[in-house]
UniProtKB/TrEMBL annotation:
GO terms for cellular component: plasma membrane. It comes from the Eukaryota. Keywords: G-protein coupled receptor, Membrane, Receptor, Transducer, Transmembrane, Transmembrane helix. GO terms for molecular function: G protein-coupled receptor activity. Gene3D superfamilies: Rhodopsin 7-helix transmembrane proteins. It comes from Patella caerulea (Rayed Mediterranean limpet). This is G-protein coupled receptors family 1 profile domain-containing protein. It is a multi-pass membrane protein. It is found in: Membrane. The chain crosses the membrane at residues 42-63, 75-94, 114-134, 155-176, 204-232, 304-326, 346-368. Belongs to the G-protein coupled receptor 1 family.
Length: 420
C-alpha cells in the first residue's frame, strides 16, 4: 500500500483494550462534540453571514422593487439578491448542521438539497454577473450604440437560471451519504454518495464546475479591465477639456455685455436681444453638459459598485477552489485533518468562504447608492415604528428635514433611471 493511501492514526481509545460497539459509538459522540466546540468560530461566522444575508437581501428585494424605476441594474441586482436568499435560507443552515456533525450526518436528502442549492445559486450568480459586466461594458465603452433593453435583460436572467439548472442537477445524483468504518462502527457524512465515490463521475463533475467558474472569472476580469481603462481615458479627456481657465473669460464677457445693456440706452434693441439669445443658448448648452456629466458620473459610480460586487464574488471563491484542488490532489486529505485539529478547523472555515458574497452585497449597495440607503432607513422606520407613538412623534419632528431632502432624492432617482 502506498504511503499516501494510509489514513492517519487517529485512535478512539488508548488503553489497548477491546471495546463494545456501544462504547465506540459513545466515544465517537464525545469526539464529535469536542470537535464541534473547536469549530464553533466557523459555525458562528457563517451564522452571522446568515443573519446579515437574510436581512440585507430582503431589504434589497423590497426596496428595489418598491422604490426604484425599471432598469437593467434593478432586475440584475434583485435577481442576485434572490439567489443569495436561497443560500441564506437553505444552504447555510444545512452547512451549519454539516459542520456540527462529522460522524452522524445521516440525512442524504438534506445533503442533496444543500449541494444542489449551492451549485445552482453559484452558477446562476456567475451568469448574472456576466450579464451585468456585458451591460456595463456596452454602456461605458459603447455608449452611442444600442443598449440592453428590458426584454433582453429578462432573457439574460432566464438563460442564467436555465444554464445553472443544467449545471447543478447532477448534484442530486452524486451527493448523499458518504460512510466509512471506524472501530467497527459505520459513520456518515455529507459528501459524494457511496454509490459513486469510487467512480470517475465526481472528479469529472468537479472539473467541469471548476473550468466553468474559472472561465467566467476570466471573462469578468477582461471585461472590467476594459471598462476601467475606458473610464480612466474619459477622465483624462474631461480633465483636459474642462479647464477653469477657459470658462472664466466667457462669463466675464457676458457680465460686461449686460452692464453695457443696462447702462447705455443708445444700444440697438435688436443687438441686445441677439446677445440675450446667445446667452440663453450658452446657458442651455451648459445645463445640458452639466446633466450629461452628472449622468456619466452616476453611470461610473454604478459600474464601480457592480465591479466591487464581482470582485467580492471572485475573491470569496479563491480559498474554496484552493482547498478543493488539495482535496482532490492529496489522497485521504480530509480524513487526515482529524489528526490535526487546528488544520481541520481552518479547513472547515475556509471551505465555506464563498458564503461571504451572500452577505456583503447589500452592504456594498448601501455604501455606493445614496437612495438605497435612505429608502432602507425609511423602510425600517415604518416596519419597527408603525405601532409606536414615540416613533410617530419622532418622525413628525423630523418632517421638515425629510421634506427638504425629497427633491434631491427625486432628482437622483430620475438620473438613476436614465443612467442605469
Amino acid at each position: 500500500m502506498d504511503s499516501s493511501d494510509v489514513i492517519c492514526d487517529h485512535p478512539l481509545f488508548t488503553d489497548n483494550k477491546n471495546h463494545t460497539i456501544e462504547e465506540v459509538k459513545l466515544r465517537l459522540s464525545e469526539l464529535e462534540d469536542r470537535e464541534a466546540i473547536m469549530k464553533l468560530p466557523a459555525i458562528l461566522f457563517i451564522g452571522i453571514l446568515l443573519l446579515i444575508g437574510l436581512m440585507g437581501n430582503f431589504l434589497v428585494c423590497a426596496v428595489y422593487h418598491l422604490k426604484f424605476p425599471p432598469s437593467t441594474s434593478k432586475y440584475f441586482i434583485m435577481t442576485l439578491a434572490i439567489f443569495d436568499l436561497l443560500n441564506c435560507t437553505i444552504a447555510i443552515p444545512a452547512e451549519m448542521a454539516d459542520l456540527r456533525f462529522d460522524y452522524h450526518f445521516n440525512s442524504p436528502d438534506v445533503c442533496r438539497v444543500m449541494r444542489l442549492t449551492i451549485s445552482f445559486s453559484t452558477s446562476a450568480s456567475a451568469g448574472i454577473l456576466l450579464a451585468i459586466a456585458t451591460d456595463r461594458y456596452r454602456k461605458i465603452c459603447h455608449p452611442f450604440e444600442r443598449q440592453m433593453n428590458s426584454r433582453e435583460t429578462k432573457l439574460g436572467i432566464f438563460l442564467a437560471i436555465f444554464g445553472a439548472l443544467m449545471v447543478s442537477w447532477p448534484a442530486t445524483l452524486l451527493y448523499g451519504r458518504s460512510t466509512r468504518i471506524i472501530e467497527g462502527v459505520r459513520v456518515a457524512d455529507c459528501a459524494f454518495d457511496d454509490s459513486v465515490r469510487n467512480t470517475c463521475y465526481p472528479q469529472i463533475y468537479i472539473a467541469i464546475l471548476t473550468a466553468m467558474c474559472l472561465t467566467s472569472m476570466g471573462v469578468l476580469i477582461v471585461l472590467y479591465t476594459l471598462i476601467i481603462l475606458r473610464v480612466w481615458k474619459q477622465k483624462k479627456l474631461r480633465a483636459r477639456f474642462q479647464s477653469p481657465v477657459i470658462s472664466e473669460p466667457v462669463n466675464s464677457s457676458r457680465c460686461d455685455c449686460f452692464k453695457k445693456l443696462n447702462c447705455f440706452d443708445s444700444l440697438d434693441s435688436r443687438s441686445a436681444s441677439t446677445e440675450v439669445d446667445i446667452y440663453n443658448v450658452d446657458q442651455s448648452m451648459m445645463e445640458e453638459k452639466r446633466k450629461s456629466n452628472s449622468n456619466q458620473n452616476h453611470s461610473v459610480r454604478t459600474t464601480l459598485m457592480l465591479l466591487l460586487v464581482t470582485a467580492v464574488f471572485i475573491i470569496s471563491f479563491i480559498p474554496y477552489f484552493a482547498l478543493q484542488i488539495l482535496k482532490n490532489a492529496v489522497t485521504n486529505f480530509e480524513q487526515n485533518l482529524h489528526c490535526n485539529h487546528v488544520a481541520m478547523v481552518a479547513y472547515k472555515f475556509f471551505l465555506r468562504s464563498f458564503f461571504i458574497n451572500s452577505a456583503v452585497n447589500p452592504i456594498i449597495y448601501s455604501f455606493f447608492n445614496t437612495q438605497f440607503r435612505l429608502e432602507c432607513k425609511e423602510f425600517l422606520k415604518r416596519v419597527f415604528c408603525s405601532r409606536g407613538s414615540n416613533c410617530s412623534r419622532s418622525s413628525d419632528s423630523n418632517e421638515p428635514i425629510d421634506n427638504a431632502n425629497v427633491p434631491e432624492v427625486t432628482k437622483y432617482q430620475k438620473a438613476e433611471a436614465t443612467v442605469f
